[in-house]
UniProtKB/TrEMBL annotation:
Gene3D superfamilies reported in the protein's UniProt record: Vaccinia Virus protein VP39 (3.40.50.150)
UniProt key word Transferase: yes
Family assignment from sequence similarity: Belongs to the class I-like SAM-binding methyltransferase superfamily. MenG/UbiE family.
Keyword terms of this UniProt record: Menaquinone biosynthesis, Methyltransferase, S-adenosyl-L-methionine, Transferase
GO biological process: menaquinone biosynthetic process; methylation
EC number: 2.1.1.163
Major enzyme class: transferase
Name of protein: Demethylmenaquinone methyltransferase
Catalysed reaction, written as an equation: a 2-demethylmenaquinol + S-adenosyl-L-methionine = a menaquinol + S-adenosyl-L-homocysteine + H(+)
Gene name in the database record: menG
Role: Methyltransferase required for the conversion of demethylmenaquinol (DMKH2) to menaquinol (MKH2).
Keyword S-adenosyl-L-methionine annotated: yes
């Protein structure tokens, strides 16, 4: 049996990808247990925020086992489930590969294998925090989105209430790894999860990063007292693609 792979805050893509490969089989079950079932509520809220429409082309980045992708595909939209973990994608194909409007692509969030202005909407749940250069990922999402297209980021965040924030941090540090062990998965991965959440910017700073990438109409709302935050934005209808802008002389 292979040794558990544990990522750290350096977020080396190979180590993070390898860690997710190892937890893929039990990932959804562990998430349901450790969030007390809130993961389904958060997924439904994300799908509503994306508001997928029939025949739209939607990118679900950091799709993992494609639970969120399948939820989006139920609308009739053409959904691309992209992730940098082959193990996660394999699990996603096993569970949802029968859906005709759902495809799977191995992809690096910092260098997406898609053309400019391809997607009507792009979304990313609990994945931006694991990217080595999250601002670069936001710029890549901007590049591949059509002018007027939509961005939805669902990510762990900072509960605004001081008392609840303290309780939440205690749970993440002391309880969550034990839950992972009981669920039979890589507990070290959930130690990393706690570290990455603690190190992650709050709602206002992430909103600022989204604006810096060129997105407009940036807004967020807290879910479950701010354990996660649902960020939304729009690519301006007149926006030039990132690659086209890069060719302009200074």
């Amino acid at each position: 049996m292979s040794q558990p792979n544990r990522a750290d805050l350096g977020k080396d893509p190979q180590r993070v990808s390898g860690m997710f490969d190892q937890v893929a089989a039990g990932y959804d079950r562990t998430n349901t247990v450790m969030t007390f079932g809130n993961d389904a509520f958060w997924r439904a809220a994300t799908t509503r925020a994306v508001a997928p429409q029939r025949y739209e082309r939607i990118l679900d980045l950091a799709a993992g086992t494609a639970s969120s992708s399948a939820s989006l595909a139920a609308s009739g939209a053409d959904v691309v489930a992209a992730d940098f973990s082959p193990g996660m994608l394999a699990e996603g194909r096993r569970r949802h590969g029968h859906l005709p409007n759902l495809s799977f692509v191995e992809a690096d969030a910092m260098n997406l294998p898609f053309g400019d202005d391809e997607f009507d909407a792009v979304t990313m749940s609990y994945g931006l925090r694991n990217v080595q250069q999250p601002k670069k990922a936001l710029a890549e999402l901007f590049r591949v989105t059509k002018p007027g297209g939509r961005l939805v980021i669902n990510e762990f965040s900072t509960p605004p209430g001081k008392a609840f924030r303290g309780l939440y941090r205690f749970y993440n540090a002391q309880v969550l790894p034990r839950v992972a062990r009981l669920a039979g998965t890589n507990a070290d991965a959930y130690d990393y999860l706690n570290e990455s959440i603690r190190d992650w910017p709050d709602q206002k700073l992430l909103s600022a990063w989204i604006r810096e990438a060129g997105w407009t109409d940036v807004a967020y709302r807290n879910l479950s007292f701010g354990i996660v935050a649902l960020h939304r934005a729009t690519k301006p209808a007149t926006a030039a693609s990132a690659s086209a802008a890069a060719t302009k002389p200074e």
